[in-house]
């Protein structure tokens, strides 16, 4: 059988299954039929009468989803006044400013369009609680204030552009009385440590949204989630990868809706896109000087000969000032202090013993990092503010917990933030306490926002599904050649500047 005949035969079977599902009274039966369709024709091989198996492409899957739900073609009457657009802004002044600019752009576009005005909210302004970034804590507010008037809640990043007419066309395909979870589909290619190895037998069987492209909840779903979190919060106390954890909570072990893929939710500009995304590494001007960043590498005796040479062979040369902090003295490694390294680093950074740099970067000895890209990013931030920057995790955020930047991905602190920490008297409660969490708890208590950048990574490149071309850091040397990973993901091809 030819490849084309195999594809056509499998498509025919898929359509027949969909028609069968459409005639069934149970909605979950219809979903069961289409859930088999996207992955391959192998499930239908016996019906096709062929052993040839071909993978249906993503566009076909989206078409099958539309066929499964004929109500998609029967437009619902949704105007912009029925949309609440939530910009996932941050409290830091740079991000607050970018979020405000995005809000102004959306409202200006709505005024010119003349089809109603959406409610546009900046996430960081909804309350004083730092943990609102994890979305679930803010759902009760959204439900109470807009649940009766809105049909859709659409979440975007600060750098996500929205074409309102195209967004309306997308939302009008779906019946607003039903539960919908819409987004650009991401899937794991292999079991990921940051997702607790979920769906390890078939990681690509579960989809979650790309926040850069925007994602939407229908009001019935948001209201049910609001009720559920009161008596059934997420099982884990930790928030690690928000987009994946949100999708898991919504899916509810198969009792809730899966993500519906929307091809018009884009990160790159294409025809018919309702959203596009700029970059997590904006151009804010020339990079800060390499002498404005002091780099502290935490290590210990057993890794002096194993990990430190990797740092020296890869990214150490891009540092203006760098020191290693260990638990023993080694003639080849400048060492200071002992175990409790992090708070010793904070104190020494403020002392006259070190050059007066604006920024402190604390990394592990198995962190791989691009210092040139970091210096580009730091140009966006004001060192005269208290800044804590990195990959943000959360602990017990539904119970007034705290956020923190992960140590493995790299913790960046402005001199002002370090000064606040040291003068507060904050300290490790034990020598083996996780220093990144202790710092996060202290910083939160001081009212300093934890600023998130997805360019920092606590894990390895292969644990992430999204595009990583502009990554700043990765962590761990397990089962990889760290030099190869550094050269592929982090080393810039243009000549280093020597500022």
From TrEMBL:
<keyword id="KW-0812">Transmembrane</keyword>
<keyword id="KW-0328">Glycosyltransferase</keyword>
<feature type="domain" description="Fringe-like glycosyltransferase">
    <location>
        <begin position="148"/>
        <end position="227"/>
    </location>
</feature>
<dbReference type="GO" id="GO:0016020">
    <property type="term" value="C:membrane"/>
</dbReference>
<dbReference type="InterPro" id="IPR029044">
    <property type="entry name" value="Nucleotide-diphossugar_trans"/>
</dbReference>
<protein>
    <recommendedName>
        <fullName>Fringe-like glycosyltransferase domain-containing protein</fullName>
    </recommendedName>
</protein>
<keyword id="KW-0735">Signal-anchor</keyword>
<feature type="domain" description="Fringe-like glycosyltransferase">
    <location>
        <begin position="287"/>
        <end position="486"/>
    </location>
</feature>
<feature type="signal peptide">
    <location>
        <begin position="1"/>
        <end position="25"/>
    </location>
</feature>
<dbReference type="Pfam" id="PF02434">
    <property type="entry name" value="Fringe"/>
</dbReference>
<keyword id="KW-0472">Membrane</keyword>
<keyword id="KW-1133">Transmembrane helix</keyword>
<dbReference type="GO" id="GO:0016757">
    <property type="term" value="F:glycosyltransferase activity"/>
</dbReference>
<keyword id="KW-0732">Signal</keyword>
<keyword id="KW-0808">Transferase</keyword>
<dbReference type="GO" id="GO:0012505">
    <property type="term" value="C:endomembrane system"/>
</dbReference>
<dbReference type="InterPro" id="IPR003378">
    <property type="entry name" value="Fringe-like_glycosylTrfase"/>
</dbReference>
<comment type="similarity">
    <text>Belongs to the glycosyltransferase 31 family.</text>
</comment>
């Amino acid at each position: 059988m030819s490849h084309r005949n195999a594809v056509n035969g499998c498509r025919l079977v898929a359509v027949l299954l969909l028609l069968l599902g459409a005639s069934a009274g149970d909605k979950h039966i219809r979903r069961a039929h289409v859930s088999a369709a996207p992955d391959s024709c192998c499930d239908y091989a016996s019906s096709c009468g062929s052993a040839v198996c071909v993978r249906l492409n993503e566009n076909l899957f989206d078409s099958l989803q539309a066929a499964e739900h004929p109500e998609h073609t029967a437009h619902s009457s949704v105007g912009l006044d029925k949309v609440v657009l939530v910009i996932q802004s941050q409290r830091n002044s740079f991000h607050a400013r970018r979020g405000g600019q995005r809000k102004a752009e959306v409202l200006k576009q709505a005024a010119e369009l003349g089809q109603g005005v959406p409610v546009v909210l900046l996430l960081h302004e909804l309350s004083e609680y730092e943990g609102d970034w994890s979305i679930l804590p803010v759902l009760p507010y959204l439900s109470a204030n807009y649940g009766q008037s809105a049909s859709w809640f659409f979440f975007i990043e600060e750098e996500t552009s929205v074409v309102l007419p195209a967004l309306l066309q997308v939302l009008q395909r779906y019946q607003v009385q039903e539960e919908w979870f819409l987004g650009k589909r991401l899937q794991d290619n292999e079991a990921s440590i940051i997702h607790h190895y979920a769906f390890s037998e078939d990681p690509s069987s579960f989809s979650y949204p790309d926040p850069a492209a925007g994602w939407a909840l229908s009001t019935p779903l948001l209201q049910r989630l609001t009720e559920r979190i009161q008596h059934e919060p997420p099982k884990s106390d930790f928030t690690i990868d928000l987009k994946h954890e949100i999708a898991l909570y919504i899916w509810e072990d198969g009792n809730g809706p899966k993500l519906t893929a929307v091809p018009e939710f884009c990160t790159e500009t294409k025809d018919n896109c309702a959203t596009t995304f700029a970059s997590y590494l904006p151009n804010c001007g020339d990079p800060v000087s390499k002498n404005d960043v002091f780099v502290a590498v935490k290590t210990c005796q057993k890794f002096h000969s194993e990990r430190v040479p990797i740092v020296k062979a890869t990214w150490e040369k891009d540092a203006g000032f760098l020191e290693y902090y260990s638990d023993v003295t080694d003639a080849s490694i400048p060492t200071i202090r002992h175990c409790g390294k992090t708070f010793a680093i904070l104190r020494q950074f403020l002392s006259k013993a070190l050059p007066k740099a604006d920024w402190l970067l604390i990394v592990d000895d198995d962190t791989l990092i691009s210092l040139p890209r970091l210096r580009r990013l730091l140009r966006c931030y004001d060192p005269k503010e208290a800044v804590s920057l990195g990959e943000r995790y959360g602990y017990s955020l539904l119970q007034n917990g705290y956020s923190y930047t992960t140590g493995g991905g790299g913790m960046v602190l402005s001199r002002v933030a370090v000064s606040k920490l040291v003068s507060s008297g904050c300290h490790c409660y034990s020598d083996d306490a996780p220093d990144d969490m202790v710092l996060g708890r202290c910083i939160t208590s001081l009212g300093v926002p934890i600023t998130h950048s997805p360019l920092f990574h606590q894990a390895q490149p292969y644990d992430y599904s999204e595009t990583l071309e502009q990554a700043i850091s990765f962590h761990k040397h397990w089962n990889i050649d760290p030099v190869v990973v550094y050269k592929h993901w982090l080393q810039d091809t243009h000549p280093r500047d020597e500022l």
